[in-house]
From TrEMBL:
Gene Ontology CC terms: cytoplasm; focal adhesion; plasma membrane
UniProt xrefs under InterPro entries: Alpha-catenin/vinculin-like_sf, Vinculin-bd_dom
UniProt xrefs under Pfam families: VBS
Record keywords: Cytoplasm
Biological process terms in GO annotation: actin cytoskeleton organization; cell-cell adhesion
GO MF terms held by the record: actin filament binding; integrin binding
Primary location group: cytoplasm
Annotated source species: Sakesphorus luctuosus
Entry protein name: TLN2 protein
Start and end residues of each Vinculin-binding site-containing domain: 15-116
Annotated gene: Tln2_1
Lineage: Eukaryota, Metazoa, Chordata, Craniata, Vertebrata
Subcellular location: Cytoplasm
Entry annotated with the keyword Cytoplasm: yes
Amino acid sequence: VLGFSFSLPVFFLQMTKSVTNPEELGGLASQMTSDYGHLALQGRMAAATAEPEEIGFQIKTRVQELGHGCIFLVQKAGALQICPTDSYTKRELIECARAVTEKVSLVLSALQAGNKGTQACITAASAVSGIIADLDTTIMFATAGTLNAENNESFADHR
């Protein structure tokens, strides 16, 4: 899913530059269609597993809205290929590309909202791993006898 988001700024730049080279629009539209198909599949899985359920609905809705924006963008790209000198169609294409960019950011924000629990678990696991590493280091030094006991007890008594 994130691969789509990282390729989007490059795509938007290519799409707006292609206003002056309309023959490039067909390939860009084809690539966008392929990327969206991948995103839709991943979005469906993300929506099905998202907690709470409202986040899943939001992911699904935003991915669908993005799909509609992509359809309009492809249509405008086709219209510009038919009439490459039409300045009105050029402006519409650029507006559609901007709308698609905004919709992608909304999809990403919904995906990030659904990922908060997962990220919290990753952060907690990382913190626990750090604590375990610190304890292992302390045990190693204590076993080697390099830690000073406050009384005459041995480390083995406490271990």
